[in-house]
Amino acid sequence: MEARSASEREALLRAAAPLIELALAEDIGTGDVTTETTLSPESQVHGYIVAKASGIIAGLPVAEMVFRYVASTVRFIARVGEGEEVSPGTLIAEVTGPAHAVLAAERTALNFLQRMSGVATLTRCFVDAVACTATTILDTRKTIPGWRALDKYAVRMGGGANHRMGLYDMILIKDNHVAAAGGIRLAIERARAAHPHLPIEVEVRNLEELQEALAITPPVDRILLDNMSVEQMRQAVSIAAGRVPLEASGGITLGRAVEIAETGVDYISVGALTHSAAALDISMELATAHRPPTPSERSTRIAEIKARLGRQVLILAHHYQRDEIIAHADVIGDSLELARQAARSDAAVIVFCGVHFMAETSAILARPGQDVVMPDPAAGCYLANTATLDAVQSAWERLAEVFGDAERVFTPVTYINSSAALKAFCGCHGGLVCTSSNAARVLHAALEQRERVFFFPDQHLGRNTARRMGIAPEEILLWSRGHPPSAEAIRKAKVVLWPGACNVHQRFRPQDVLAVRRQFPDVRILVHPECKQEVVALADDTGSTRHIIEQVQAAAPGTRWAIGTEARLVQRLQRQHPEQQIMLLSEAPPFCRTMGQTTAEKLLQLLEALARGERPHRITVDQEIAHWARIALERMLAL
C-alpha cells in the first residue's frame, strides 16, 4: 500500500478507536445475551455484508476494526474499495469467525459503515452536480460531536474537499468577530499578527463588505459570501476577478448547487453533507444452504458458458471495468481500440462491457446480422449526458446567426463519449468523431477543412488539445448554455467548447499535484486529457488511457508514478507492476460508477440467456441516425 494511503488509514483508525470502544460498550454491555444463549461458544459463521441501496462506500477500515476489536480471530475481506459505487445486492465485504464475536460486533460495524457511506453518498451527489464547473464542494464543522475525523474522511471518499478541521487550523473571521473587533480590516490585521502562518478567510454579507475585504493587502486566502443571492454571487465573482478565491455558503441545497456553481465561485460549503446525510442501507446476511454463489463459483460458471458459446460471442471490456469483468474479456481497450475491434469482428454477438455510448458505437459499426448486447444497458455516461442534441442544435443555430452559415465556418467535432445523435449531427454537417487518443489529429483535420471548430461535449479535452496545438487562450471560447456568448466573443473564437466534463477526471485538482510533489519530489505525474487544464499544465505527461498504460509498461523498475485517471485502472496497474511505485494522484479514489454497474453477476445472467438462444439487452440505433453517425466515425477511422 502506498505511504499516503497507509498514513490516512492509520489516522482514520486512531480517530475511530475511542468511538468504537464507546459504541461497543454501549451496545454489548455485560454481554450479548441472545447469541450467548442460542449458539454454542464453538459456533463459526460466515456473513455477507450487502448493499440494500445505491451509494458510495466509506468506512470499511472502521468496520473491520470493530469486528477485530471484539475478536482478533475474525476475518474481514472487503469486496469493494473505499469510495466505490454500489447498487442493491452488491457484496461489500465478507466476515468469518466465532459466531459470538461476529454477531456482537455486527450492529456497531454496520452503524459506522452506514453513517460514513451515507455522508460519502450525499457528497458525491453534490460533487457530480457541479462537475461541469470549476467549483469544489467543501464540508463544514457541522459534524457529529466526536466524529469530526470520520465525517470529513467520508466527505473525501465522496469526492468533496475538507474545510478547516477545527478552530485551530484556519482563521475564519465571521460577522460576530468583525463586529467585536471594530471592522473587517482590524479583525484581519489582529489575526494576521497573532498567527502569520495560518490561512485567513473572511465572511462578507454584501458587495460593500466584499470591496472592503478585497482592498486589504496582502490579500486574504479566501472570502466567504454568506447567504448572498445568485445574482449577488455573480456580481461578486465579477468584482473579485480572480484576485481572491470565493466561497459560497448558506442555504445551499442540491437543487441550487448547479446555479450557484455557474456563477463562477471557487468553493461551495455545504453543512448538510455531515448534518443531514441519510445512512446508506446496508445489512449483513449469514451464509445458508441457499447462499449466493461465491465470486470464484460465478467466475467458473462464466468461463464454462463462454467456452460453450465459442467464437460466436466476443466480449469487449473497457479498461475501467471491474477486475471480475476484465478476467473474462476477449479484448480490453480504450474507446478507440474497442471501436476498431467492434468494426473488425465477425462474431454473431458482441457483448460490450462498458457504458451505453460505447455499445451504441459498436452497434453503428456492426456488420449486418451482428448483435451488440450489454450486461447492463442502463450503464450510461455522465459526460455524454452533459450534451443533448437539442442543446447542441440550439448553439449551432446561434453560431449560424453570427456567421450566416455555421457549416461554412465550423467543423463540428464530437468526442466519442457522446450519444449516437450527436455523432449523427457531426456526420450530417461535415464533422467527425474523436477519442482521447486521436483528438489532436482530428482537430488538425477539422481546422484544415474549415477555419473554426465546434467541439463537444468535453471542454477539458477540447481545451487541452487546442492549447497543445498552439491555439491561443483568447481564441478558445467556452459556451454557456444559460447565457450564450456575444457575437463579438464568437467571432474571436477559433475553437468553441461545449461546457461538459467527466465527473471522474474533474475531481483531480492542482492541489493534488502540488501535494504529491511535496511528498515525493521524484514522482512522475501522468494524467488523462479529460482533466482540467490547470492539472494538465502541472503534470509531466498527459494522454489517453492507452498512452497511460504504455508509459507504465515501458518505465524502469523503481519509477514512481502519480496517475490521474479512473481508480480501477490505476489499482490494476499497481498489481501488474509491483516493480514500480504507482499511486492515484488524488487522495480519494475516483471510481467511475457507471463503469462499475457491469458486474460478474450481470455478465453471467447475460451469457446464460445467450446460451438459451435469447438476445436480451440488444443495443439498437435508429437507421437514419446510424447512417450519419457511421459517416462521422468512418471519417475518424480513416485518419
- How much β-strand is present in the residues? 15-25%
Q: What structural category characterises the helix and strand content? A: alpha/beta
Please state the CA-atom Rg, rounded to the nearest Å: 26 Å
Which regions have little confidence, pLDDT < 50, spanning 5+ residues?
none
| Total DSSP E strands | 25
Number of helices: 27
Task: Please tell me the CATH architecture of the largest domain by its name.
Answer: Alpha-Beta Complex
Distance between the termini: 42 Å
Structurally, how many domains make up the residues?
A: 5
Identify the overall geometry: flat
Descriptive report:
It is a single chain. 45% of the residues lie in helices and 16% in strands. It has 639 residues and is an alpha/beta fold. The strands form 6 sheets. Strands 6-11-10-9-8-7 form a 6-stranded parallel sheet. It has a 5-stranded parallel sheet with strand order 18-17-19-21-20, sandwiched between helices. The chain has a 4-stranded antiparallel sheet with strand order 3-5-1-12, covered by helices on one side. Helix 10 links the parallel strand 10 and strand 11. The protein starts with a helix and ends with a helix. The mean pLDDT is 95.
